[in-house]
Specification:
PAS-like_dom_sf, 2 domains, 6 helices, single chain, PAS domain S-box protein, alpha/beta, PAS
């Protein structure tokens, strides 16, 4: 896993700034920005490509949904981790539904860097899987188009020699009527 993650840390209250920065010492690019205004968040999101976004709140914020909406608008693939002073069970479950990847308390910051690395790696693997799936679907569509439009008779058979697929040319040659099975 690469150590040069781009991490944006957004603070509601700057009192934990140094502690968070120390927890992320291994990241090559850490930017810390105050959540004092919506404009500051917008500028931060527009201003860079972030692998992970860390939101730091002293208490449960009423602006979390707005912050997440802005983050997802500009950085939909970014891992989002929220750090709060104390974790509340029902609140944790509610926040998970909002698309937060991890919820960490200030007392457990030792897990922050490994958590971000793991989540970013998972995101990279998911993106790679989506690209692979897309390429496979495109390849299958090209094969299907070629199979169906070939002027040469072509079929696929199972192990017992039964027809699985036949193209138009084979059906015309054998005077069968093509029955769509897809």
């Amino acid at each position: 896993m690469r150590a040069d993650l781009n991490v944006l840390v957004l603070f509601e209250c700057p009192k934990h700034h140094d502690v968070i920065q120390q927890a992320l010492i291994s990241a090559a690019n850490v930017a810390c920005v105050s959540l004092a205004s919506a404009e500051a968040l917008e500028r931060s999101m527009k201003g860079g490509r972030w692998d992970a976004v860390v939101l730091c709140y002293e208490t449960a914020p009423t602006t979390l949904k707005q912050h997440l909406s802005t983050i997802r608008r500009y950085q939909p693939e970014a891992t989002v981790t929220v750090i709060v002073a104390t974790l509340d069970g029902p609140l944790s479950a509610e926040w998970a539904h909002l698309g937060i990847n991890d919820l960490i308390s200030f007392g457990d910051l030792s897990v922050l860097w490994p958590t971000l690395q793991r989540r970013v790696k998972e995101g990279q693997e998911k993106r790679a899987w989506r690209v692979t799936e897309k390429c496979l679907c495109e390849s299958e569509a090209r094969f299907r188009e070629l199979f169906e439009s070939l002027p040469v008779a072509y079929q696929t058979l199972d192990e017992q020699g039964r027809y699985l697929e036949a193209n138009d040319a084979l059906c015309k040659l054998l005077t069968f009527q093509l029955v769509a099975s897809f």
